[in-house]
Write a structure and sequence with these properties.
Elements (H helix, E strand, L loop, with lengths): L7 E3 L5 E3 L10 H9 L16 H15 L5 H8 L5 H4 L4 H7 L1 H17 L8 H21 L5 H8 L4 H4 L9 H18 L1
Antiparallel strand pairs: 1-2
Helix pairs in contact: 1-10, 2-3, 2-7, 2-10, 3-10, 7-8
Amino acid sequence: MAQQPRAWQRMLSGRRLDLLDPTPVDIEIEDIAHGLAFVARWNGQTRGDYAYSVAEHSLLVETIFGRINPKAPAKWRLAALLHDAPEYVIGDMISPVKAAVGPNYGALDDRLTAAIHLRFGLPSSLPVSVKKQIKKADKISAWMEAVQIAGFSEVESSKFFGKPDPSLMEGLHIVLRPPVETRNAFTARHVSLLEQL
């Protein structure tokens, strides 16, 4: 009799996360923060002495989201911080790879997102207006990353991500730092937002 392939991953917390049927009880913020701090955006093709991590990107997206919607409640800022959280186990695939993999990647991402949201008191599916604002913040972050560390010109970046409102980026810069610092900053921001709920 053929054995089913293993579909779970053991986390550093000791939890076993079933990728095909994730549950909120198997989600820990320390696992998310640790994983995201070691996942490189842009497939690692960025300038600098450290990879630009998904955790660092998530912190920037949450900041930009707050500028787009300054009156947003803490729960939606938390959703912005966690917008790429599933990547702590499935990695960060650039858009061309996602397109090649097909709809199965999206379904896996959706299941993990729902479990993560429920674990931290968010609805499994976000309101469309909130998703749009997070996506806008995500694109602004991608534009900044493309120009500042990924070798894109502003014209090229604007073609792919749209030209962002300069006021939403004022005073913001891409930060490259060791994974442990990013992990700690991500965890601290998560704690701060939970305290505001």
